[in-house]
Amino acid sequence: MGRFKKAKKTKAPATVLFTSEKNDEGKRQNCVYAQCHLSGYSVGPIWGHKDASVKRALATLTEECDCPARFHQNKEQQGMRRA
Ligand SMILES: [Zn+2]
Fold first, then answer.
1. Distances (CA, A) of 23 to 39, 48, 54
2. Which of these, 35, 48, 65, 82, has the minimum number of CB atoms within 10 Å of its CB?
3. How far is the CA of 82 from the centre of ligand 1 (A)?
C-alpha cells in the first residue's frame, strides 16, 4: 500500500476529435468526441466545436473515465475544426 496508490496522476492526456453527426432532428451538426489515452474510454457526441464544447467533453470524460486522473488534457486533436 501507500506509495504507489498515493502517486495518483492528476492529468491524463486525451484526444479530441472534431467531427459532425446527425442530431435528433436528422440535421448534421458539429460535435466533438474525447478519448482518454490511459483507458481508451471515450465520450461524445458533445455538440459544437467551440472551446466550451471541448471543455465539456473533457469534463464529461473525467466524470465517466475509469482512470485515476482528476483532469483530462486536450493533448491531441483530430478531424477538422469548424468553429
Ligand atoms: Zn482517463
1. 27, 11, 18
2. 82
3. 26
What are the beta bridge partners of residue 44?
none
Task: Report the DSSP beta bridge partners of residue 73.
Answer: 13
**DSSP code, position 61:** H
> What stretches of 1-83 show up as alpha helix (H) in DSSP?
3-6, 51-64
Residue 13 CA to residue 29 CA, distance in Å, equals 26
C-alpha 58 to ligand 1 mean position (Å): 9
pLDDT tens across the length of the chain (83 residues)? 445 554 466 999 999 999 999 999 999 999 999 999 999 999 999 999 999 999 999 999 999 999 999 999 999 999 999 97
- How far, in Å, is the centroid of ligand 1 from the Cα of 14? 7
Element (H, E) at 1: none
Question: Which residues fall inside 5 Å of ion ligand 1, going by CB?
Answer: 12, 36, 38-39, 65, 67, 69
